[in-house]
Amino acid sequence: MILNLLLCLLQQIQFAEEKQEFSRFPIKAGRRSLSRSISQSSTDSYSSAASYTDSSDDETSPRDKTQINSKGTSDFCVKNIKQAEFGRHEIEIAEQEMSALISLRKRALGEKPLAGAKIVGCTHITAQTAVLIETLVALGAQCRWSACNIYSTQNEVAAALAEAGVAVFAWKGESEDDFWWCIDRCINMQGWQPNMILDDGGDLTHWVYKKYPSIFKKIRGIVEESVTGVHRLYQLSKAGKLCVPAMNVNDSVTKQKFDNLYCCRESILDGLKRTTDVMFGGKQVVVCGYGEVGKGCCAALKALGAIVYVTEIDPICALQACMDGFRVVKLNEVIRVVDMVITCTGNKNVVTRDQLDRLKNGCIVCNMGHSNTEIDVASLRTPELTWERVRSQVDHVIWPDGKRVLLLAEGRLLNLSCSTVPTFVLSITATTQALALIELYNAPEGRYKQDVYLLPKKMVTYNVKLVTIIYPFLYLGNFTGANLG
């Protein structure tokens, strides 16, 4: 008994000493610092393709700054040119996984197939895109670049490109006005006129048609990556307003069967985890669209135990979803019970305000298509609804009855806005884009009319051969374009 009392007394004395030692430190400040550190590590550091800095670091608009790179030029507009060294490291890491593009750069370096090309581009500005841009420059092109998404730019990568001499106008967190200003700065440069367009979504092409239609007299071709942009090109072609040949990269075998499928299969989970920390097992999820993007998303969610529903208007894709083990439904049948709504269609108003009103409390809503119009986000900006920013790229939209819906990236592309994407798969798409530019730029007059084309099969084959360089164990036998079927 006495021994037990002595032990208790010693423990109380030890606890009192530890408490006194702990009280020497500023508890309140320490806790605030820890909380801020956790918050930053879970949002800022990992949002928008793992950018080193969040757009909130400096509230001053890059448009209001005067920045000069080490070469003494200022023909760019980025968040902070001092981040260039970090961006260069990101690009070097990406190069390790982009074997196809690096192989193309090395093989065509001596020929300079893009010598004299003046390419204006509007794509996501990430480390992977930077490797593409620098490959185009190495092959002889002059490039001016802006971002196709206001949230996907890696600030440090944009800085690295500006430091290398590329005229880049982009930063994470642009406003709508900034977005169009950056595109205009790329096009409207005194003494410089583009002769090629590389677009992702069709906004650049739209702006040229709207503001500078005379430029098309010297444009040799347009290369478009996304389904949204391709739809816009076909609309122009149908209306007889397409002035130049255009290459549809989105529907090429290498884009559809690799980037759209495998890239989204891996990045959908990454984006959802980083923004919401959600557990997928047992969750009811509806995926709108069962194209290649939808297939990738559904496969990933199913593998982690989610109960997946699919909505699809194309009977062939709907049958595929059914045969893959998913229940094909109408959105209105499940809108009240699902825990997540994911759009993957490339269309607009897929999820309407009426359907958003019927979602249950805590439902997560996001988009994996290119355009931010798949979810009717504009209808949510009304006085009766309250928006509350809870994390970077995560908003609570609060209804009058207290219901909260989690909207990710304001309805914009989830994976590139909130996480990262697999570099290797992007290398295949980037190589397809580069080959399409080379083909259109060097094609003899008359080969391509004012219409939309797919990349010639011989070039698709060449792309796949470049990819397989890193797979020495892959036996292709007598590999020809016919094998791509």
From TrEMBL:
PROSITE patterns registered for this protein in UniProt: ADOHCYASE_1, ADOHCYASE_2
CC per GO annotation: cytosol
One GO biological process term: one-carbon metabolic process
Amino-acid positions noted as binding substrate in the UniProt annotation, renumbered to this chain: T126, D200, E225, K255, D259
Cofactor section: NAD(+)
Compositionally biased intervals (Low complexity): 35-54
Region entry Disordered, spans: 31-71
Residues annotated as binding NAD(+): G291, E292, V293, G294, K295, G296, E312, N415
Note describing how the cofactor binds: Binds 1 NAD(+) per subunit.
Pfam families associated with the record: AdoHcyase, AdoHcyase_NAD
Protein name: Adenosylhomocysteinase like 1
Species, as recorded: Scleropages formosus (Asian bonytongue)
Taxonomic lineage from the root: Eukaryota, Metazoa, Chordata, Craniata, Vertebrata
